[in-house]
Amino acid sequence: MGIAANIAEDWHAALAALAWQVEAGADETILDAPLNRYELSAEAPKPLSAKASLPAALPSAPGAADPVAVAKSLAEQAPTLGALQSALTAFDHCDLKKGARSTVFSDGNPQARVLILGEAPGAEEDREGRPFVGRAGQLLDRMFAAIGLSRTSQNAETALYITNVMPWRPPGNRDPEPAEIAMMLPFVERHIALVDPKVIVVVGNTPLFALTGTKGILRARGAWSQALGKPLLPMTHPAYLLRNPSAKREAWADLLSLQARLR
Ligand code: URA
């Protein structure tokens, strides 16, 4: 093999290695200062307690703006969905934004009776700028189509509106942290108030935690409660159903319960 072939091969190998690292969540190539990883503490990160609550305000440097307060003020002042999207896009206090290509706001029909609240964009959503367009999203579309609901419907009765707690993809698709959820919550609350759906469906633990302060979607699923003054139905996330097809039977029961509630 000649030198030119080697260079081409190295280039493709380097590109593949880079793509793999981006996929795994790498969002910078160097740090501002050298980091000796041998000196880092071996202590594992502490898991979230089941009923951890969201921080009301985040610790910040003296004089620095509190991101939750900034988010609240921006969200409250947004009179329309367009204004809310602009305010969210301009919000610079969440580090996840730095590693994301898109601010993923929503998809579907804002007149819909049903609002689906997901967790956060994944790689495909980040690339396309729309929520739930990857494999899990395709399953979500099929699930709701089975009870006659679709994000492309122009008719409010049969339409869906879809958004996420986090508009930016977390690196490596990790779970969003409570502080990150806390600073997005004012936007989520305003988003739901502006759409004013009849029913909210939360899929997965992150939106369940964001709206109710509790986790445990496998226990909570299928049980109607209230959030933001609206009926709330927790369901398992379609990504979970892809990994655990036997859980689809319960998800079907939840869809039927939603269908009955809408009648
Ligand atoms: N999972 C989510 O919760 N939201 C998306 O937009 C995609 C995958």
Please explain how this structure is put together.
- The protein is α/β, with parallel strands linked by helices and 263 residues long.
- The protein contains ten helices and six strands.
- Strands 1-3-2-4-6-5 form a six-stranded mixed beta sheet, with helices on both faces.
- Helix 2 packs parallel to helix 6.
- The radius of gyration is 20 Å and the shape is globular.
Quick tags:
globular, binds uracil, alpha/beta, Uracil-DNA Glycosylase, subunit E, 263 residues
Q: Name the overall outline.
A: globular
Task: Bin the helical content.
Answer: 40-55%
**Sheet with the most strands?**
6 strands, mixed
Count helical runs. Answer: 10
Q: Which spans of ≥5 residues are poorly predicted at pLDDT below 50?
A: 47-51
Query: How much of the polypeptide forms β-strand, as a percent range?
Result: 5-15%
CATH superfamily: Uracil-DNA glycosylase-like domain
**Protein structure class:** alpha/beta
Could you give the order of the helices and strands?
Answer: HHHEEHHEHEHHEEHH
Q: What's the CATH class, please?
A: Alpha Beta
